Amino acid sequence: MQCVLYILSCRVEAEGTININKINMEYFGIVADEILGIFVPILVYWVYYGMYLLLDLKIGENYRLHTKRDEMEKNTVDKATVIKGVNRKGSDDVDGDDNNNERSMVMTIIILGWQWGIAMLVVDTWQYLMHRYMHQNKYLYKYIHSQHHRLVVPYAFGALYNHPLEGLLVDTMSEALSFFVSVVLIFFSFATIKAIDDHCGLCLPWNPFHIIFKNNTLYHDVHHQLYGNNFNFSQPFLVMWDKLFGTYLPPTTPHCVPSN
Ligand SMILES: [Zn+2]
Ligand SMILES: [Zn+2]
């Protein structure tokens, strides 16, 4: 528990200014730090996908956005290829530093909340701009981003199925930018979970992401359809850039389709 609190704690300089870029990792050391950085995002990805796999098996028939037949017929890539494509995605290093001064938990939570909001804004802004440009630039779309759109009927573990260069330019770069303002490890894990959720293909009525975010499974599903290919570039949290730049297309799926 103490280790967890140290991960969450922010460094406070002796003169009283708060250095929000650093994470105290003194309980882990460099080796543990690298192991965490490599394995936590991968673990989060597959554990969260596992939850959706179980949900799909148990209650998927009532909540699927597309039929299983559509998944088989419309997707232009098989699942084995998607798994291979996802597993090559790397993870992020986390910097460590000493921390001799600790703030109260209240102060820590306030700082974390602020960092969280700014990190979401940074990730969303970068990903919107890059994502939209990859659609506008025919070369980038044809040779890079079209790989992700081979999934017309998205499923959870296809969330990070994309070209390695897209992974670098969109995902890794946005995470690197948010590194300067965020609580890195837990924020990245949260962003990973959100990306999986956006591709899960189920419209579960009690899904908290669907209540909190307008940018959710239904919203991103529109972008994967041929008619929505030039809309809903925003990801993974907000919809404001789509609304501001006229690329917002609200989901029209009135209810889930029955599986067959
Ligand atoms: Zn796209
Ligand atoms: Zn997608």
Automatic annotation (TrEMBL):
Residue spans crossing the bilayer: 38-55, 109-129, 176-196
Organism taxonomic ancestry: Eukaryota, Viridiplantae, Streptophyta, Embryophyta, Tracheophyta
InterPro entries in the record: Fatty_acid_hydroxylase, Sterol_Desaturase_Related
Protein known as: Fatty acid hydroxylase domain-containing protein
Family per similarity comment: Belongs to the sterol desaturase family.
Keyword line: Membrane, Transmembrane, Transmembrane helix
PANTHER family, per database record: STEROL DESATURASE
KW Aminoacyl-tRNA synthetase (keyword) present: no
